[in-house]
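Reminder to self: tokens first, then the designed residues, so the page reads top to bottom the way the pipeline ran.
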């Protein structure tokens, strides 16, 4: 296993304090004796099909291993879409959590309102548990109807019984989603019926499914039940994978015109659980075949590999004002990632934290996270902690560290643009300074089909400069005669004087500038 470490830091200004920044330690890991190391920005998304990769048809999809959360495949995984009935996983989780907190009991009975019956019951024509209007149903039975039968009426009755109305319950769902780490999901109702306020990504659906599997093992058994009878009407589970794939035991299907056909499915084979989420397909049969193919591909091609054992040093973080200049970082649990059995995966592990870390530091103190990348995708993320104690340093040491951070911050901040001399009606185009990893000195970039090479070293005075940047405001590219570096407009080069004059004449006549 080859390892390469480099450090990059982005300082930011602080009022009356030492300059701080984001420090990233990059640990490039090649799995297997014939592995290949990639620079972060030189990665590609997934392996090609002829290299053992998966070629899926779903517009959005993700496949993860439940134990580690390792991502085996993803496609547009962060695209927000209508989740349809798949979002009732969040409805179920909110109810599970309330039961676990003692706020709700399985024996509690809720009234079936006319609203729930008319919009989600038999008159609506959608999935329903056929709850009778004005009847009372226990939370246990409502969960069966919501999970096994995708009953819209069951979801509405649960929402109204717990929160008073569905809208308030939807707000509870959104709040609960943030508590468990779902940062983009939003909800407007409990059933998944069409509403522009219902949005989720397949990545967050996978995270939610994994959370339910790990947090509520007893409740999770409901997702594997194949039928449920209510009001003398027997209905089969709407998850066809329960009958067609070995080890399949959940979770949900969904469809709306806006979101298309989707599915969240999970299966266990040889002690390994995989979770797949797909959405946006045009045919219900396609979602089943796509989910099944992806799960079978994952079981067939991947195995677990330990990158770092528990308490094994993962990296070091810079310390501010301590007896030591750095602190050792480790994980309390083994950091595992799923890798392809043929050994062709290219992995990069990055330790990311805000630093320098101020002393004193205690063992076990949270410092940051380690993210393991497979190509352009984050395969797994795990927290890292201080593996040793660092006492507070002397006054002289703190003063030296403070001065050092201040000087480094001032040096990297660079001069700002001056707006003098511009007319009030002239639009100002500014460029945000972007740090390009490929441009840093000493970062190796090794490609799959060629030997290692180093990026060309820049001149001494250009180490912290960046390539030409396009304007992020003003709606256009900078003309060739105005090169923007570090937020400052540089003077045109002498050789480009004619180009500059032509560009000014072009702007005067209203022509749009071409690409750089």
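Designed residues (516 positions):
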């Amino acid at each position: 296993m080859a390892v390469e470490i480099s450090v990059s830091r982005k300082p930011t200004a602080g009022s009356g304090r030492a300059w701080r920044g984001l420090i990233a330690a990059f640990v490039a890991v090649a799995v297997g004796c014939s592995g290949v190391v990639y620079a972060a920005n030189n990665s590609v998304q997934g392996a090609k099909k002829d290299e053992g990769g998966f070629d899926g048809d779903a517009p959005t999809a993700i496949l993860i291993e439940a134990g580690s959360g390792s991502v085996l495949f993803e496609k547009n995984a962060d695209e927000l879409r209508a989740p349809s009935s798949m979002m009732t996983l969040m409805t179920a989780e909110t109810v599970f959590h309330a039961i676990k907190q003692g706020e709700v009991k399985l024996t509690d009975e809720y009234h079936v309102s006319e609203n729930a019956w008319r919009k989600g019951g038999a008159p609506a024509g959608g999935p329903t548990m056929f709850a009778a209007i004005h009847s009372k149903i226990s939370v246990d039975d409502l969960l069966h109807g919501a999970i096994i039968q995708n009953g819209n009426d069951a979801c509405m009755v649960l929402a109204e019984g717990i929160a008073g109305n569905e809208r308030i319950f939807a707000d509870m769902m959104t709040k609960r989603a943030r508590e468990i780490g779902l940062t983009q999901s939003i909800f407007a109702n409990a059933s998944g019926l069409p509403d522009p306020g219902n949005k989720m990504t397949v990545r967050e659906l996978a995270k939610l499914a994994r959370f339910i599997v790990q947090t509520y093992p007893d409740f999770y058994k409901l997702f594997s039940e194949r039928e449920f009878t209510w009001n003398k009407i027997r209905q089969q589970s709407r998850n066809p994978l329960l009958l067609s794939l070995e080890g399949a035991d959940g979770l949900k299907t969904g469809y709306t015109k806006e979101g298309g056909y989707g599915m969240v499915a999970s299966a266990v084979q040889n002690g390994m659980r995989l979770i797949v989420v797909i959405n946006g397909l045009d045919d219900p049969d396609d979602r089943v075949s796509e989910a099944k193919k992806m799960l079978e591909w994952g079981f067939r091609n991947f195995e677990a590999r330990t990158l770092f054992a528990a308490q094994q040093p993962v990296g070091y973080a810079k310390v501010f004002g301590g007896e030591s200049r750095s602190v050792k970082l480790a994980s309390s649990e083994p950091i595992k990632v799923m890798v392809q059995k043929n050994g062709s995966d290219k992995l990069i592990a990055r330790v990311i934290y805000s630093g320098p870390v101020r002393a004193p530091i205690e063992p076990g103190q949270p410092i940051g996270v380690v993210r393991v990348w497979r190509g352009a995708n984050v395969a797994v993320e795990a927290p890292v902690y201080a593996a040793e104690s660092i006492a507070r340093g002397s006054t002289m040491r703190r003063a030296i560290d403070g001065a050092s951070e201040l000087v480094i911050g001032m040096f990297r901040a660079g001069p700002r643009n001056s707006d003098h001399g511009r007319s009030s009606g002239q639009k100002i185009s500014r460029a945000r300074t972007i740090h390009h990893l490929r441009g840093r000195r000493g970062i190796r970039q090794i490609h799959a089909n060629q030997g290692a090479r180093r990026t060309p070293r820049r001149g001494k005075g250009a180490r912290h400069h960046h390539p030409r940047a396009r304007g992020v405001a003003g709606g256009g590219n900078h003309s060739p005669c105005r090169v923007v570096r570090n937020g400052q407009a540089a003077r045109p080069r002498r050789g480009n004087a004619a180009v500059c004059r032509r560009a000014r004449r072009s702007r005067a006549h209203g022509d749009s500038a071409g690409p750089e």
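Residues 82-235 form a domain with the Beta-lactamase fold (CATH 3.40.710.10).
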